[in-house]
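Input (structure):
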């Protein structure tokens, strides 16, 4: 992989150990994926922020780094709500370690937004090159916004943030972004059914790029749910939607075609008795919080209901949050049910997310079932 004179000097350690580590990570990635050179990026989003997932080894590595990031950089969810951690039954030790991790990132100049939906805070422009980790953020940026990023691991995204560049391969190249298979959905779906659709298709589409034909234009939340599930179950980094997403006119239509029946989706969303309900993986948008508030209006929960969102979304709609919490539900920020110990005291959980349906069993060791957001709330208040 070609390096400029300055990049070579960074690689050789002339600018300090932290930048040397970062450049060596980027060069290794570039060599693995046969990148020709490094390209500038406009932003980075860094995962590996929860003490639950990175542990003491991750904290030790972060503590060894110094300097400042070169581009706007944001942080993924951590393992607790920084203000309501006691309500989550987080131990003092976990709390202290998590605080240290956040401080390490902040010292590097990374914004502690602690959210998996950075695109709600600041949308990248069409054609922007990024270095984002967090699978749902990557597929949303590529598909809905037309930005360009590979699905970076935490070390790669952090290295790119520190250098301000990323290897030029994969989703950064226009020729790698063409659709490979058509997905025809014969009936119009309900909002959370798009997440179920992504969950069903993920393994079939693994590492492929689909183009969807739907009966209607999808809203941003529906595209978020579809993408998050595709990314979680099939490592899909980009999808197109006919007549809607920004790059669909740039590529020829693929010949391979898959048709989806609604009954397959409905079967996935059948559920039975569970102990707790958890919403917000990815973090709920302001619109989704309004939906939850409307469904809970004048009601009290009979099953525990946890609602996860970002702090910047919560701060923008505090009246809505109050309406939700009058029911007894708890709205938490900075974290979610997957990367926190939230579900450790339960055996079963109901979610509205195809991404959570994939990750909760392996990362939380809890039985999980999926249904619509409306059914989740109705079940919480004893109406189902």
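Output (sequence):
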């Amino acid at each position: 992989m070609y390096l400029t004179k300055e990049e070579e000097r960074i690689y050789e350690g002339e600018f300090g150990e932290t930048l040397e580590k970062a450049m060596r990570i980027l060069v290794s990635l570039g060599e693995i994926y046969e990148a020709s050179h490094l390209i500038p990026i406009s932003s980075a989003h860094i995962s590996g922020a929860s003490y639950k997932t990175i542990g003491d080894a991750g904290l030790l590595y972060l503590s060894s780094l110094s300097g400042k990031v070169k581009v706007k950089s944001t942080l993924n969810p951590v393992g607790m709500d920084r203000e309501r951690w006691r309500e989550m039954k987080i131990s003092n030790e976990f709390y202290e370690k998590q605080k240290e991790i956040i401080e390490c990132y902040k010292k590097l100049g990374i914004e502690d937004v602690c959210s998996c939906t950075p695109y709600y805070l600041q949308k990248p422009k069409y054609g922007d090159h990024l270095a984002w980790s967090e699978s749902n953020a990557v597929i949303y940026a590529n598909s809905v916004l037309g930005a360009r990023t590979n699905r970076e691991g935490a070390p790669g995204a952090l290295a790119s943030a520190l250098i301000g560049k990323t290897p030029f391969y994969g989703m950064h190249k226009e020729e790698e972004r063409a659709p490979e298979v058509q997905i025809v959905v014969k009936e119009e779906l309900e909002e959370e059914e798009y997440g179920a659709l992504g969950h069903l298709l993920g393994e079939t589409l693994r590492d492929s790029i689909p183009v969807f034909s739907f009966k209607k234009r999808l809203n941003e939340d529906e595209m978020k749910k579809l993408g998050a599930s595709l990314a979680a179950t099939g490592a899909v980094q980009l999808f197109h939607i006919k007549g809607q997403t920004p790059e669909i006119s740039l590529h020829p239509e693929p010949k391979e075609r898959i048709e989806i029946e609604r009954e397959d989706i409905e079967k996935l969303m059948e559920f039975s008795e569970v102990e707790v309900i958890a919403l917000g993986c990815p973090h709920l948008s302001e619109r989704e919080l309004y939906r939850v508030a409307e469904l809970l209006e004048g009601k009290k929960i009979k099953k525990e209901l946890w609602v996860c969102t970002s702090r910047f979304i919560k701060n923008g709609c505090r009246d809505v949050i109050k309406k939700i919490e009058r029911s007894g539900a708890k709205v938490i920020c900075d974290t979610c049910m997957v990367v926190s110990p939230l579900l450790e005291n339960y055996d079963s959980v109901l979610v509205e997310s195809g991404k959570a349906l994939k990750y909760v069993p392996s990362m939380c060791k809890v039985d999980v079932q999926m249904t619509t957001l409306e059914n989740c709330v109705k079940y919480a208040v004893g109406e189902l």
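Notes: Residues 217 and 244 are 7 Å apart (CA to CA). The mean pLDDT is 97.
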